[in-house]
Design goal:
This protein is of the alpha/beta class. It has ten helices and 16 strands. A hairpin with a 2-residue loop joins strand 10 and strand 11.
Length: 304
């Protein structure tokens, strides 16, 4: 299971109801944060994530409502005793921003902060997932991020293992992880006791963007697309001029990409108490749409 926590869901300026853009994916104890608007550190601490977990931060672009919270988060984690390195990925200018603030507003942290400049393509990869960056369409360079798990091992069939003479215990665990084992001189391969590989989860986070073909292609068959939905479609011209999307335009992207769930995000302060209008507009295009509130959690479970 992957949990998505919506730390901040607003746009440009915070309101009583919505903080600035920040989401956190929690997967097997690791935290993956996408954007970090001002004040995100407080919400991060309120969620009880812990300050010493494996963690990566991905910044979409260098507008203040998406990046300025990184500085406070680095400092808070240092004051609270973080020891692990913190990996931060983002566009050109991010490293200079952090280094300038640390030089002019000195604060102490014992842990290492590793900053990686993002370009299109694979940003980071582990044995179990890959994160890619694609250039979206905003008024300054904005990288949307695609998180995609690699195929998971197929379902384990105990009866097959027993028939092959593999006793229940640690050898079963190794086979389930995709490792061959040796029993009485014979090599038993995982494919002999596992079903076909199972699809992992795919989550796409757009940052600020107009609708664009690159995002449609990158989001194909995603489980979740979190898409800029700043305004309603009666303000489409303004949204596009400012490098944003409307709820309807976001839904059109999601429908073209055959996305399972569309999350409307980066909501203008003018819609306080009227978020249902955004949902209603998007649902004219596709049915499975939500507008999360700050603090909401979404659980993604694997298909059997």
């Amino acid at each position: 299971m992957i949990e998505i926590f919506f730390i901040g869901t607003g746009a440009s300026v915070p309101t009583k109801e919505r903080g600035l853009p920040c989401i956190v994916l929690r997967r097997k104890g690791e935290l993956l944060m996408f954007d970090c608007g001002e004040g995100s550190q407080r919400s991060f601490l309120l969620h009880g994530f812990g300050v010493n977990r494996p963690m990566k931060i991905f910044i979409t672009h260098m507008h203040g409502d998406h990046v300025l919270g990184v500085l406070g988060l680095i400092q808070s984690m240092g004051l609270l005793g973080r020891k692990r390195p913190l990996e931060i990925y983002g566009p050109r200018g991010l490293e200079e921003l952090i280094e300038t603030v640390e030089r002019t507003v000195p604060f102490h942290h014992e842990y290492e902060v590793r900053i990686h400049e993002v370009k299109e393509g694979v940003v980071c990869e582990t044995d179990e997932y890959v994160i890619k960056a694609i250039l979206a369409d905003h008024v300054i360079p904005n990288y949307a991020y695609v998180f995609e798990e690699k195929p998971r091992p197929g379902r384990f069939h105990p009866e097959r293992a027993l028939a092959l003479g593999v006793p229940q215990g640690p050898l079963w665990s190794r086979l389930q992880k995709g490792e061959p084992v040796v029993v009485k001189g014979r090599v038993i391969r995982p494919e002999e006791v596992l079903g076909p590989p199972r699809k992992g989860l795919k989550i796409v986070y757009s940052g600020d963007t107009r609708p664009c073909r690159a995002l449609v292609e990158a989001s194909m068959n995603a489980d979740v697309l979190i898409h800029d939905s700043t305004l309603l479609d009666n303000l489409r011209e303004k949204a596009l001029e400012d490098g944003h999307s409307t709820a309807r335009l976001a839904a059109e992207v999601a429908k073209k990409a055959r996305v399972r769930l569309l999350v409307l995000f980066h909501i203008s302060a003018r819609y306080v108490g009227m978020e249902h209008l955004l949902v209603n507009e998007a649902r004219q295009v596709m049915e499975n749409v939500i507008v999360p509130i700050d603090g909401q959690k979404l659980e993604l479970k694997y298909e059997s």
